[in-house]
Design brief:
The chain has about 475 residues and is of the alpha/beta class. It has helices at about 10, 30-40, 80-95, 110-125, 175-180, 195-205, 225-235, 250-260, 265-275, 285-295, 315-325, 335-340, 355-360, 370-375, 395-400, 405-425, 440-450, 460-480, and strands at about 15-20, 45-50, 55, 60, 75, 100, 130, 140, 160-165, 185-190, 210-215, 240-245, 280, 305-310, 330, 355, 385-390, 430-435, 455. The chain is built from 18 helices and 19 strands.
Length: about 475
């Protein structure tokens, strides 16, 4: 099967979208559902549905779905739960086969909500209406600017990373996600009245635009055997990161309070199932996003030999500890590398791994961009598989302040600093940085770096952990390939 033949393809590539419950009131969350489609220039036809409005955001508005004179590929329903059944019935009459139920108040809302959930589940199944949600947002597709969100989305960054979520925890972070990641698609499954994680995984496996998959789950709704079967295949071809919350009894009950679904599967059993595949399990939210960043930005390392470039001896020690604790080894830096660095080294002997660039910088203040470029010889060494570097403290002052310089000179200096780190990246080994200053200026510099494919992590420990997980994934995938999976 090709991706275009999978039923989820139509959710990501609709030619027309009807938004039921659209509003002119900018203080209501439903306003954003339409605003994003209009302001991000979604190229398909958009039909707002509201019984009291004539026009919303310049678009003709229809009182009911039945009043729309043209075919509708996707309906997004934001009406209250008690009115949702009517929307489903209208979809059935009109032959609409794709529905997103944004509203909450179903299986998570006590006996009456659970009864309504069951009633609508039976109705969409009997009418052949594939349904996302309830209590959900998305689908999002950066290739056609299709964004279904309660947040105003400012800018999209297109890439090969696709997310599937069971919870809306990502929604307040959506602009941060689009700023920091190259995203292909996002799917929020919500209460999983119909569409579940098995089908999401199946589609992302088929989708040629998806290179890395990041999947969040609170419960396994689909067929467990099918889930593992697909995961075994897809994780060998595309790095697949899984965050499973609701791991404890208390966490499972908490999950039920907002999705209505109790995660009954034993976490040890779930962990055992994941270990039968090449998928990577994230232990927490920070690691989930760290690994999504690492796998989507970087090529896989050939092995576990790490070069550490630091601006502080103390940070170098921490990075060295992190390497050993996560299964990486310190790479040997050969004499050829030493010879190439000789002109930049202090007059006494210093270790080359970890390499204390802070000391060396004191001898190279005259041309820092050239100095940073020279460090590319370290990851380029034939005994180095990957490299990690601390961002130089106060570097943002050099890059952005430009005291006494013209705007053109500041831009030239900025480009030189950027190119010096791109030279290290271009050594051909997975290369990551970690933060030093933790201030706003450094944050601006990180945005510049990451826009050019240089991932930056919050600490040495998190940067090293990401590389270690990638090296372990490569090893598992190679072993699985050699044994036939």
């Amino acid at each position: 099967m090709r991706a275009s033949e999978h039923f989820l393809h139509g959710f990501f590539w609709p030619q027309s979208v009807a938004v039921v419950g659209a509003t002119n009131n900018m203080y209501k969350t439903n306003f954003r559902l339409l605003q994003n489609l209009v302001q991000l220039n979604y190229p398909g036809r958009i039909y707002p549905v509201n019984p009291t409005e004539k026009e919303i955001l310049g678009l003709k508005t229809y009182p009911r779905l039945e009043d729309i004179p043209e075919p509708i590929d996707l309906v997004v329903s934001g009406v209250r739960p008690e009115f949702t059944k009517k929307v489903v019935e209208q979809c059935a009459v009109m032959g609409i086969k794709r529905l997103v139920i944004v509203s909450g108040g179903f299986s998570e809302a006590g006996p009456s909500g659970q009864a309504l959930h069951r009633e609508i589940a039976e109705l969409v199944k009997s009418k052949g209406i594939r349904t996302l949600g309830p209590n959900t947002l998305t689908p999002n597709n950066t290739a056609n600017n299709l964004i279904i969100s309660f947040c105003r989305v400012n800018k999209l960054r297109r890439g090969g990373l696709s997310f599937a979520f069971q919870s809306g925890f990502y929604e307040p972070k959506i602009n941060w996600i689009f700023l920091n990641f190259g995203v292909s698609k996002m799917l929020d499954m919500g209460n999983k009245i119909d569409i579940n994680e098995v089908e999401a995984l199946e589609y992302f496996h088929l989708d040629p635009e998806t290179k890395v998959i990041a999947l969040h789950m609170e419960s396994l709704h689909g067929d467990g055997r099918r889930f593992v079967e697909i995961l075994k295949k897809v994780s060998l071809e595309k790095p697949t990161i899984i965050l499973k919350s609701g791991r404890t009894a208390s966490g499972s009950k908490a999950a039920a309070s907002h999705t209505g679904s109790l995660a009954r599967e034993n976490d040890l059993i779930f962990d055992h199932l994941i270990k039968q595949t090449a998928a990577v399990r994230a232990q927490n939210l920070e690691e989930f996003f760290d690994l999504a960043k690492a796998f989507s930005y970087l090529e896989l390392p050939r092995g576990k030999r790490l070069a550490i470039l630091t601006m502080s001896g103390g940070e170098g020690v921490m990075a060295t500890d992190a390497a050993e604790m996560n299964g990486l080894t310190l790479a040997s830096i050969n004499r050829q590398t030493l010879k190439k660095l000789k002109g930049n080294l202090p007059p006494w002997e210093i270790p080359l791994n970890p390499f204390d660039g802070g000391v060396v910088m004191q001898f190279n203040f005259s041309n820092l961009p050239e100095y940073f470029s020279s460090l590319a010889v370290i990851p380029a060494g034939d005994k180095v598989d990957c490299a990690v570097m601390q961002m130089p403290p106060n570097m943002a002052d050099f890059v952005f302040s430009g005291a006494g310089l013209s705007a053109d000179d500041v831009q030239t200096l900025r480009n030189k600093f950027l190119q010096s780190f791109m030279d290290i990246k271009d050594a051909g080994k997975p290369f990551v940085l970690w933060r030093s200053a933790l201030d706003a200026g450094e944050g601006e510099l990180i945005n510049l770096f990451e826009a050019h494919g240089l991932p930056v992590f919050a600490s040495a420990d998190r940067a090293v952990k990401a590389l270690a997980v990638m090296a372990a994934y490569q090893k598992r995938r190679t072993a699985a390939g050699k044994t036939g999976g």
